[in-house]
Amino acid sequence: MNPRHIRLLIWKEFTQLRRDPLLLRLLFLMPVLMLVMLGYVVGADVKNLKTAVVDLDHSATSRALVASFEASGYFRIVRHPNDERALRGLLDHGDVVVALVVPEGTERRLRAGRSTELGVVVDGSDSRTASTASGYSAQIVSAFNRRRIEATGVKLQAPGIDARVRVLYNPGLRMVDTMIPSLIAYILLISTMSIMSQSVVRERERGTLEQMFVTPISRGEYLIGKTVPYMLTSIVQMVTVAIVGRLWFGVPFNGSPAVVLSGLFLFMITAVGLGLLISLVSRTRTQAQQTVMFIMIPSMVLSGFIFPIESMPAEIVPLTYLIPLRYAVVVMRSTFAKGSGFDDLAFQLVAMALFAVAIFGVAVARFSKRLAD
Amino acid sequence: MGQAATVGDAATPRERVSSAPSSDMAISVRGLTKRFGTFTAVDAIDFDVRRGEVFGFLGPNGAGKTTAIRMLTGTIAPTAGSALVLGDDVIAKPEKVKRRIGYMSQKFALFEDMTVDENLRFYAGVYDVSGAEFAARRRYILRMADLEGREDELTANLSVGWKQRLALGAATIHEPELLFLDEPTSGVDPVARRHFWDLLYDLADDGVTLFVTTHYMDEANHCHRLGFMYAGRLIAQGSPTEVRAAYAPDGATAGTLPSIEDVFVHLVTAHRDRQEDGA
Predict the structure, then answer these.
(1) Residue A134 — pLDDT band, cuts 50, 70, 90?
(2) Looking at chain A, which residue has its C-alpha nearest residue B106?
(3) Interface test with chain A among B88, B126, B168, by most A beta carbons within 10 Å
(4) ipTM higher than 0.90?
(5) Are A351 and A297 found together in one domain?
(6) Fewer CB near the terminus (10 Å): N or C of chain B?
(7) Distance between CA atoms of A98 and A79, rounded to whole angstroms?
């Protein structure tokens, strides 16, 4: 290992990177684009659902009930049709996604101490919106009931079970707070894999790789000279995402930097290893890019990054353990939201270390073997 | 089948083949073999290249020329056999050999997105050519490649002839004693080819040993000695005149010897027929 050779290779890599405006733009635009997409679109909480209200009761109670829906912030009442039959058209056209129907006699029945029903119609074409809307409605109604009973001064002998859900760690249930920490890991994976594989395949296409091994540059020097620059660019990307997430999206960070950095370091080794493996199986840069896509899709879907693993079919869940991003997502989320330490994340960190050693080890071994043949 | 390698023996001075490898040889190869799985790319070849010689390595595509070069440059390990390059065992000490040889391929292997100067600086660093020495080499190479004043141009913008000369400069920046050239002139126009060979002769005059593979038979005549590769085997070797005389019809005089191209075609067809008979 000659440090001067390694410095030279790093200088060469950065000189080439500087001359590749497309790659450079991709490197820095991609994190920003993903931040905006995931921060504003995917991470956006379900709020201001367009709601129609059919109040057939026209009573103080019905008005108070509707007002508490509106006050929650989740529902925005945009229509007041007089008839239930008008709702179908409104839902069909997407004018509203939720409809509330307060039946005639609601107040009278409640006064008489009898129970009554509130109709909540939800557009199920977007299942996430639908489930959120029905969940919120149930909460609002139960809160409304509680207040009403307390207001009458009636002391219930047996108040029954009153579930009061308290959300730990992310009390606002802000999607963006869990999205951005995992995004750091995701960007690390996608960009390291693609840039790493692109730059090796390009050298093979042009014959400079072949030339390199006729010179006194050793394989180890070449590997270090090739991976270090892209590790550095990944670090810059991750820091960008972390800063924008913290300052712009106000994502709280409650964890220990040491835990986050250990997790990311192990994950970076894995990503570099995957990039090298891709460069070995791809003959052209297009093939390399397609292989990256081939890895990205299962990583995105099966890691819990976007879809919760808990809601996956039982047969699929074992597969998720094969996805390195899965562990990185847990590490990032837990440290950011809960401040989890090394003890709490021991399983994830050990798994990531195993992946790093296995994938990077195989990549380096295959890489040297390939060059030897 | 193994005997086929001796066809050219008549044209090869016997003492050279039978003598033990010695250090006044730039290259000395015995039984060099490379197998990829069941495919034998290079099949037990023996040859020597003397120091200061221009050795032409001929053969059709897929004959094993490039594989042989890759073994001689220490890039890949042979399956069997020995190879002394500049007196050192290239299998045991590839790093030592690599410092003293140069290599230039048909792809030129320049970094297209780097400037002329950056390419030279890079290869100088690779071979640990120090500051003062580099300044002198750089001046020499820029003049040789006719690139003075174009140091800051991107290599991608140079036309083929200039790229080729720059690649030669980069490959010789450390003043190697032995230079391997793998089809260095393919895709280059005849004028540039002629110019390039002048540069190679300059190197040879300075005592650099050249090991050149080529498709162009006219270029074979530029070489002091030739080796013909076919299907992984070295089927003939000798000086151009020796090779031509060995395959001349009876009674041919110096003026009526067959051309290298005729010999080449003759050798390749004869071997192909023999292989088909054997199969």
Answers:
(1) confident
(2) A207
(3) B126
(4) no
(5) yes
(6) C
(7) 10
